[in-house]
Amino acid sequence: MTRRRNVDTGPVVHRTARIGLRLTRAQRQRCFGLLRSAGDVWACVLEINAWRRRRGDRPVASFYELCGLLSASGPGTFGELNTAGARSVLRRYSDAWFSAAARRKAGHSEVRYPRRRRTLMPVRWYHGTFALSGRQVRLPAARGCPPLLVRLDRTVPYPAGTVRSVTLVFDAGRLWLDVTAELPIASYRPGTARDQNRVAGVDLGIIHPYAAANPADGTALLVSGRAIRAEHRMHLADTKARRRGTARHAPGKGQKGSRRWRKMRRRARLIEARHHRRTRQALHEATTTLICWAVEQRIGTLTVGDPRDVLNKPAGRRHNLRLRQWQIGRTLQILQDKAALAGIQVHLVDERGTSSTCPNCHKRISKPRGRNMTCPHCTFAGHRDIAAAFTIATRTPGGAITPEALRCSGVVTHRRAGRHLPGAGPARRDPRRRPSRPSAPGSFGRRRPASPSVVGSRSLTLVNEDPQQRRDQPGGRSWTPH
Hints:
InterPro entries: Cas12f1-like_TNB, Transposase
Region (Disordered): 239-263, 413-482
Largest sheet: 7 strands, antiparallel
Mean pLDDT: 82
Helix content: 25-40%
Shape: globular
Organism: Paractinoplanes lichenicola
Distance between the termini: 58 Å
Number of helices: 8
Number of strands: 18
Protein name: Transposase
Pfam family, one: OrfB_IS605
């Protein structure tokens, strides 16, 4: 990404896609050589500042001063790493140093300056120093060394003219290439553009990652995240079982592990990385569903309830574990990024008391134990998360702009997130689970799964009515008002 842009261009956002590499053995060795050379650059900067600190001199942290030291070192000092790649490491060090200095100045004395060495350091090349053609990327090398040609395992999801930088990284036992592109904010046809005065409230949760409500016409969106929660639980159980089985074979302090132990540790890291990729993709799918719904509703502002204050309160061993698996920070970051690309503003407000406040009469009620809430002061009955989303919409900075008469009287759209997760497909069973017991005598056997073609449902249901299960049609719902 270039540091200077033309002011005449419209607003843009930067997005990064991580793409795997298909390498030969020689290409793999050269990639690791570049990462080790970048680690040497990082170690040299740490050593120089350590010398200056012992002498009582001012540390070298400015990017331009660090570039001067790099030029004085001469060509060929860091193997095949060229000047552009080495400067990306210096830029990373300078940003980390000044960020730590700003936080220490703000009163965070526990923050430390960069001081830890790294064997493998990511290397970034900016626009104009690399070449991208289809799935092939040409990375520059030092003077006298041939350029490195690598092949991607999938096509870059951005137009070639918008790519501004590529970064070579090593993560979870694999080499990756992070491709960063500069994308313009989405534009809409006349009559379909977003309206900043149309506000929607968003309630975040564990069972339902997103519950959105549009008070303008009473419509709502409910995204189910039960597959994500099941993935977290099964991964935790799998990790605990693996550690119990290998605890007695773990090497002691000062003892070198065997080759079998190293293979087991590598396998554990690969499983952990696969779990993170699965949950991250599910969060992206859920957020994309929310943004597409907001674009269809012509929403210009999303008012999101910020529940991060709840994370600091002790609530027991089990509930604290659920909150740690929630990944609320990543969820908010993904939401803000996708909303910025769609041209939608995001406001974070306090969500305290929204799940125990009636959206119709605005009176406090006892928080329900289940998913449905009923107000004893009026005739409202509906989903608790959707009711909280309607209440959050009223906390928009500047006040609610939507009319009061259309509140809580629209269509609820149901969607699922994480259809790619194990157990979320037609079988509805995670392969890591133990096989089920045989059916009891006289039973009809296990229930049949739903059709795999059903991705979500759109319920023509009023929010202020009470759901009841039908007995005449399997899986159907009838809504009986109070």
